[in-house]
Amino acid sequence: MKQEIIHDQAFLAKPSVPASADDTDQVNDLVDTLKANTDKAVGLAANMIGVNKRIIAVQIGIMSIPLINPEIINKGEEYSTMEGCLSLPGERKTTRYNHITVRYQDSNFKMHTQEFTEFVAQIIQHEVDHCNGILI
User: Fold this and answer.
1) Residue 136 in domain
2) Residue 127 is among the residues annotated as catalytic for this protein
3) Core vs surface per residue 30-67: b (16+ CB within 10 A) or e
4) Is residue 111 part of a domain?
5) CA 44 to CA 27: how far, in whole Å?
6) What pLDDT shows up at residue 81?
7) Structural domain boundaries, residue 118
8) How far apart are CA 84 and CA 126, in angstroms?
9) Which of 85, 90, 113, 135 is deepest in the core (most CB within 10 A)?
């Protein structure tokens, strides 16, 4: 079910706790909320809908993909960029990496390790920052 986007910076600055199989409804809500906002967002973290769990959703083409308990385990090719956020007004300068390796669970809580590059890597880094309580 689509949820409202949270703008409370104090809440967003709290690091998220690991998600479990009991959080399936929150995973579905996050994906539904991303789908409802694809005209202005390419990724969301669960804390952006008021759920303090390590869950993100990323728009890859026409697919809204959840990554549960994502952890960036490798990164390379640093660059600077400007990013916006649905929860915060304006754009801010940040450092990102063009290549990342992420360990995460899928919606069935099966573990994966996958490499991502370019814009998808940037989206994932932004949303993992949300999970870590980092606001840009």
Assistant:
1) no
2) yes
3) bbbbbbebeeebbbbbbbbbebbbbbbbbbeeeebbbb
4) yes
5) 11
6) 97
7) 9-131
8) 10
9) 85
Q: Hey, what amino acid is at 40?
A: K
How far, in Å, CA of 117 to CA of 120, rounded?
Answer: 6
**Main-chain dihedrals φ then ψ at residue 9, nearest 5 degrees:** -65, -30
Q: Which amino acid is at 66?
A: P
Residue with tokens 């600077």: 80
Q: Which structure tokens are listed for 117?
A: 């590059």
pLDDT along the chain (136 residues), means of 10: 94 97 97 95 97 97 96 97 92 96 97 97 98 93
Asked if 104 and 71 touch (Cβ cutoff 8 Å), the reply is yes
**CATH for 66:** 3.90.45.10
> Does residue 1 lie in a domain region?
no
Which one of 78, 83, 115, 127 is the catalytic residue?
Answer: 127
CA distance 103 to 113: 4
Total number of domains constituting the chain = 1
Two tokens, residue 106? 């899928």
